[in-house]
Design brief:
The protein has 374 residues and is mainly beta. Helices cover 14% and strands 34% of the residues. Strands 1, 6, 8, 9, 10 and 14 form a six-stranded mixed beta sheet that branches.
């Protein structure tokens, strides 16, 4: 190879090396970033129950120590029938298509249905007025042979396999209601208006007729039962038998969470007295649920239910049931204040003329209620 050719080749190689170095030095650097998001159901627990609130004279009772009602009771009680060999009677409504009532020693049941996706608890409190001239017994007295008038009354479960005697001091019965059946009919949906996921009953269960409740929801039933002694000197009784008083409630142990933002401006806030550190609620005829005294620790939890005519609504839907939320001007989702929640016209039509109890869940797990006659 000639010296001249080697010199040219060296120059070419040098140029290639320089070009290669230039290409490496000018290579582009790539960068990127991404933000994270979290898609979850913020408020997974749904509290919804069907609970009778107005039972009329369902717990009225008749004492019949001598068995006279089986013989001639139909004459006084409109052709009613009486179960034989009983000493205490409760009226049962006539069957469909009949006008003949039936009386037995067990009252018609109070049945509560759990539409929630969580287990709930029912609490029954019962108390007899202090009787005059009658001894209250802690067990059946139907076979008692004393001459003192005695009576026994108890709260019993649907299957009548347990009884708890009612006293003048009062008793309490607590029982769980499972959510197994209802859970099978819950679905998660996206609420675009509030940009959140929520759990709700599917169409099939939410539109179930009353006769189908047992198919979709677990339940608990309780009744009253009792008797009196046949040998007591009931003719000397000067006062009527004691009145029975019952209260039943359903609650859950878990609270709700916050999250629904406010929409400012609205009508004047009514003067609802509230002590420092306490939350109060009231209803107005124009369908606004006012909640006053909310704080960052005990704020609006995004859950409102209405109880009327023996049933409790599901959590009111912010898109269909509430026309505008946060109508009060002092409320914020982080600090609390006074909040107004306006019911939709549809709900106002439903509750017209009814006594309605509104229950508002707070972020600390507590609840506040108020009753209003529309």
């Amino acid at each position: 190879m000639s010296r001249k050719y080697r010199r040219v080749l060296a120059a070419v190689l040098t140029a290639v090396m320089v070009l290669g170095s230039a290409m490496a030095a000018d290579a582009a650097n790539g960068r990127g970033q991404g933000s994270g998001s979290l898609d979850i159901v913020k408020y997974p627990d749904v509290f919804s129950v069907i609970l009778p609130t107005n039972v009329g004279g369902q717990f009225n009772y008749i004492l019949d120590p001598t068995g006279i009602l089986v013989q001639v009771g139909a004459d006084k009680y409109g052709n009613a029938t009486f179960e034989p060999d009983k000493t205490m009677y409760f009226r049962h409504k006539p069957a469909s298509g009949s006008d003949v009532a039936n009386y037995t020693d067990v009252s018609e049941p109070i049945t509560a249905y759990n539409r929630s996706n969580i287990d709930v608890e029912i609490k029954i409190q019962a108390k007899l007025d202090i009787p005059k001239g009658i001894t209250l017994a802690s067990s059946s007295v139907v076979n008692d042979t004393s001459t003192d008038p005695k009576m026994y009354m108890a709260v019993t479960e649907g299957s009548k396999n347990t009884e708890k005697p009612v006293t003048s001091q009062g008793i309490e019965v607590v029982a769980p209601i499972s959510s197994t059946k209802a859970k099978a009919h819950y679905e998660t949906v996206y609420d675009a208006r509030n940009d959140m996921y929520k759990n709700q009953l599917d169409h099939e269960a939410s539109n179930a007729a009353e006769a189908e409740y047992g198919k979709y929801f677990d339940s608990y039933s309780f009744m009253l039962t009792g008797d009196c002694n046949r040998t007591g000197d009931w003719n000397k009784l000067k006062d009527t038998p004691p009145a029975i008083r019952l209260v039943w409630t359903i609650d859950k142990t878990q609270g709700s969470a916050t999250g629904i933002p406010s929409i400012p401006d609205g009508p004047d806030v009514p003067d609802v007295p509230v002590a420092p550190g306490q939350v109060s609620v009231s209803l107005s005829d124009d369908g606004i649920i006012w909640v006053k005294g909310l704080t960052s620790a005990a704020n609006y939890g995004g859950e409102v239910t209405l109880t009327y005519d023996g049933q409790t609504s599901q959590n009111l839907d912010s898109e269909y049931d509430i026309e505008w939320e946060g109508v009060g001007t002092t409320w914020t989702s982080d600090k609390g204040g006074t909040l107004g929640i306006r019911l939709s016209q549809t709900w106002l039509n439903i509750v017209k003329g009814k006594s309605v109890t509104a229950t508002v869940r707070l972020t600390d797990g507590s609840k506040v209620t108020a009753t209003h006659q529309f």
